[in-house]
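User: Can you predict the 3D structure for this chain?
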Amino acid sequence: MSIVVRDVREHELDSILALNNAAGPAILPLDAARLRRFFDTAEYFRVAVRDGTLSGFLVGFGSESGHDSSNFRWFGERYERFFYIDRIVVASRRRGGGLGRAFYADVQSYAELRYPQMACEVFVEHDSDPARVFHGSFGFHEVGQHVMPGTTDEPSGIRASMLIKELCSYAWVREHYGDELPNAPWLTRPRPPAPAPHRATGT
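Assistant: Here is the predicted structure, written as C-alpha coordinates:
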Protein backbone atom coordinates (compact mmCIF):
# COMPACT_ATOMS: atom_id res chain seq x y z
CA MET A 1 0.00 0.00 0.00
CA SER A 2 1.46 3.36 -1.03
CA ILE A 3 1.24 6.72 0.75
CA VAL A 4 1.78 9.93 -1.20
CA VAL A 5 1.97 13.29 0.62
CA ARG A 6 1.51 16.21 -1.78
CA ASP A 7 0.11 19.74 -2.04
CA VAL A 8 -3.65 20.11 -1.75
CA ARG A 9 -5.61 20.81 -4.94
CA GLU A 10 -8.50 23.23 -5.04
CA HIS A 11 -11.05 20.68 -6.24
CA GLU A 12 -10.33 18.60 -3.10
CA LEU A 13 -11.60 21.22 -0.64
CA ASP A 14 -15.11 19.75 -0.38
CA SER A 15 -13.67 16.34 0.47
CA ILE A 16 -11.32 17.91 3.03
CA LEU A 17 -14.20 19.78 4.65
CA ALA A 18 -16.17 16.55 5.03
CA LEU A 19 -13.11 14.74 6.38
CA ASN A 20 -12.45 17.46 8.95
CA ASN A 21 -16.03 17.61 10.21
CA ALA A 22 -16.25 13.84 10.56
CA ALA A 23 -13.10 13.67 12.69
CA GLY A 24 -14.78 14.02 16.09
CA PRO A 25 -14.37 16.37 19.07
CA ALA A 26 -10.56 16.37 19.04
CA ILE A 27 -10.65 18.48 15.85
CA LEU A 28 -12.35 21.88 15.63
CA PRO A 29 -15.09 22.00 12.98
CA LEU A 30 -14.61 24.01 9.81
CA ASP A 31 -16.93 25.79 7.44
CA ALA A 32 -16.24 26.35 3.76
CA ALA A 33 -15.19 29.98 4.24
CA ARG A 34 -12.52 29.18 6.83
CA LEU A 35 -11.24 26.26 4.81
CA ARG A 36 -10.91 28.61 1.85
CA ARG A 37 -8.87 30.98 4.04
CA PHE A 38 -6.59 28.08 4.86
CA PHE A 39 -6.22 27.28 1.18
CA ASP A 40 -5.43 30.90 0.34
CA THR A 41 -3.02 31.67 3.19
CA ALA A 42 -1.55 28.54 4.80
CA GLU A 43 2.17 28.12 4.28
CA TYR A 44 1.82 24.35 4.36
CA PHE A 45 -1.39 22.60 3.25
CA ARG A 46 -0.80 19.06 2.11
CA VAL A 47 -2.87 15.91 1.76
CA ALA A 48 -2.08 12.22 2.09
CA VAL A 49 -3.33 9.92 -0.62
CA ARG A 50 -3.30 6.22 0.18
CA ASP A 51 -4.01 3.72 -2.57
CA GLY A 52 -5.48 6.50 -4.68
CA THR A 53 -7.85 7.78 -1.96
CA LEU A 54 -7.53 11.11 -0.15
CA SER A 55 -7.09 9.98 3.44
CA GLY A 56 -5.88 12.97 5.47
CA PHE A 57 -4.47 16.49 5.50
CA LEU A 58 -2.24 18.80 7.53
CA VAL A 59 -2.35 22.61 7.67
CA GLY A 60 0.47 24.76 9.05
CA PHE A 61 1.44 28.43 9.37
CA GLY A 62 4.70 30.25 9.98
CA SER A 63 4.96 32.56 12.98
CA GLU A 64 4.79 35.72 10.86
CA SER A 65 1.61 34.71 9.04
CA GLY A 66 -0.87 36.53 11.28
CA HIS A 67 -2.99 33.38 11.59
CA ASP A 68 -6.11 34.16 13.65
CA SER A 69 -6.20 31.12 15.95
CA SER A 70 -6.06 31.89 19.67
CA ASN A 71 -3.70 28.94 20.13
CA PHE A 72 -1.39 30.39 17.46
CA ARG A 73 -1.44 33.75 19.27
CA TRP A 74 -0.57 31.99 22.55
CA PHE A 75 2.63 30.68 20.98
CA GLY A 76 3.28 34.05 19.32
CA GLU A 77 3.27 35.77 22.70
CA ARG A 78 5.99 33.43 23.96
CA TYR A 79 8.15 32.46 20.99
CA GLU A 80 9.71 34.70 18.37
CA ARG A 81 9.89 32.26 15.48
CA PHE A 82 8.11 28.92 15.06
CA PHE A 83 6.10 26.80 12.66
CA TYR A 84 2.56 26.09 13.87
CA ILE A 85 0.58 22.98 12.99
CA ASP A 86 -3.04 24.13 13.04
CA ARG A 87 -4.51 20.69 12.48
CA ILE A 88 -3.81 17.22 11.24
CA VAL A 89 -6.74 15.01 10.26
CA VAL A 90 -6.62 11.35 9.22
CA ALA A 91 -9.70 9.47 8.04
CA SER A 92 -10.97 7.14 10.77
CA ARG A 93 -10.56 4.04 8.61
CA ARG A 94 -6.89 4.93 8.02
CA ARG A 95 -5.83 5.70 11.60
CA GLY A 96 -3.01 3.58 12.90
CA GLY A 97 -1.71 2.94 9.40
CA GLY A 98 1.23 5.34 9.38
CA LEU A 99 -0.36 8.41 7.80
CA GLY A 100 0.23 10.59 10.86
CA ARG A 101 3.89 9.65 10.96
CA ALA A 102 4.23 10.26 7.22
CA PHE A 103 2.74 13.74 7.67
CA TYR A 104 4.98 14.63 10.59
CA ALA A 105 8.09 13.43 8.78
CA ASP A 106 7.10 15.57 5.79
CA VAL A 107 6.19 18.71 7.72
CA GLN A 108 9.33 18.50 9.87
CA SER A 109 11.52 18.19 6.78
CA TYR A 110 9.95 21.46 5.63
CA ALA A 111 9.91 23.31 8.95
CA GLU A 112 13.38 22.46 10.23
CA LEU A 113 15.00 24.33 7.33
CA ARG A 114 13.12 27.54 8.14
CA TYR A 115 12.11 27.60 11.82
CA PRO A 116 13.83 26.75 15.13
CA GLN A 117 10.70 25.23 16.66
CA MET A 118 7.53 23.45 15.69
CA ALA A 119 4.37 24.07 17.73
CA CYS A 120 0.96 22.45 18.04
CA GLU A 121 -1.66 21.66 20.66
CA VAL A 122 -3.67 18.67 21.86
CA PHE A 123 -7.06 19.17 23.50
CA VAL A 124 -6.97 17.89 27.06
CA GLU A 125 -10.63 16.93 27.43
CA HIS A 126 -11.07 14.53 24.53
CA ASP A 127 -9.24 11.28 25.40
CA SER A 128 -5.95 12.92 24.57
CA ASP A 129 -3.54 10.27 25.88
CA PRO A 130 -3.03 8.56 22.47
CA ALA A 131 -2.38 11.97 20.88
CA ARG A 132 0.03 12.91 23.67
CA VAL A 133 1.96 9.66 23.27
CA PHE A 134 2.07 10.18 19.50
CA HIS A 135 3.46 13.71 19.85
CA GLY A 136 5.82 12.73 22.64
CA SER A 137 7.28 10.03 20.41
CA PHE A 138 8.17 12.80 17.96
CA GLY A 139 9.94 14.87 20.59
CA PHE A 140 7.18 17.36 21.48
CA HIS A 141 6.86 18.46 25.09
CA GLU A 142 4.28 20.52 26.94
CA VAL A 143 5.21 24.15 27.60
CA GLY A 144 1.90 25.23 29.14
CA GLN A 145 -1.85 24.97 28.85
CA HIS A 146 -4.30 27.39 27.28
CA VAL A 147 -8.07 27.73 27.65
CA MET A 148 -9.50 28.95 24.38
CA PRO A 149 -11.45 32.18 24.93
CA GLY A 150 -13.91 31.61 22.10
CA THR A 151 -14.24 33.39 18.77
CA THR A 152 -16.45 33.10 15.72
CA ASP A 153 -14.36 30.11 14.62
CA GLU A 154 -13.41 28.62 17.99
CA PRO A 155 -15.66 27.48 20.83
CA SER A 156 -14.78 28.76 24.28
CA GLY A 157 -13.64 26.81 27.32
CA ILE A 158 -11.59 24.12 25.57
CA ARG A 159 -8.31 23.48 27.36
CA ALA A 160 -5.33 22.69 25.19
CA SER A 161 -1.95 21.23 26.05
CA MET A 162 0.54 23.45 24.22
CA LEU A 163 3.42 21.51 22.69
CA ILE A 164 6.80 22.56 21.29
CA LYS A 165 9.50 20.61 19.49
CA GLU A 166 12.99 22.04 19.04
CA LEU A 167 14.24 21.61 15.49
CA CYS A 168 17.95 20.98 15.91
CA SER A 169 18.78 21.21 12.18
CA TYR A 170 17.65 24.84 11.94
CA ALA A 171 20.80 26.39 13.45
CA TRP A 172 23.09 24.49 11.10
CA VAL A 173 21.02 25.39 8.03
CA ARG A 174 20.94 29.07 9.04
CA GLU A 175 24.69 29.13 9.67
CA HIS A 176 25.55 27.62 6.30
CA TYR A 177 22.79 28.89 4.00
CA GLY A 178 20.83 31.67 5.69
CA ASP A 179 17.65 32.26 3.69
CA GLU A 180 19.20 31.03 0.41
CA LEU A 181 18.56 27.30 0.32
CA PRO A 182 20.02 25.29 -2.57
CA ASN A 183 17.88 24.98 -5.66
CA ALA A 184 16.59 21.43 -5.28
CA PRO A 185 12.97 20.26 -5.63
CA TRP A 186 12.72 18.83 -2.12
CA LEU A 187 13.91 22.14 -0.62
CA THR A 188 11.28 24.31 -2.28
CA ARG A 189 8.22 25.47 -0.43
CA PRO A 190 5.23 23.15 -0.84
CA ARG A 191 3.12 26.28 -1.37
CA PRO A 192 3.88 29.93 -2.12
CA PRO A 193 4.62 32.04 0.99
CA ALA A 194 1.47 33.18 2.76
CA PRO A 195 0.87 36.90 2.24
CA ALA A 196 1.39 38.97 5.34
CA PRO A 197 -1.88 40.43 6.61
CA HIS A 198 -2.35 44.18 6.48
CA ARG A 199 -1.71 45.71 9.87
CA ALA A 200 -2.70 49.26 10.65
CA THR A 201 0.03 51.24 12.36
CA GLY A 202 -0.49 54.08 14.73
CA THR A 203 1.49 56.51 16.78
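Residues 196-203 have pLDDT under 50 and may be disordered. Residues 123 and 160 are 4 Å apart (CA to CA).
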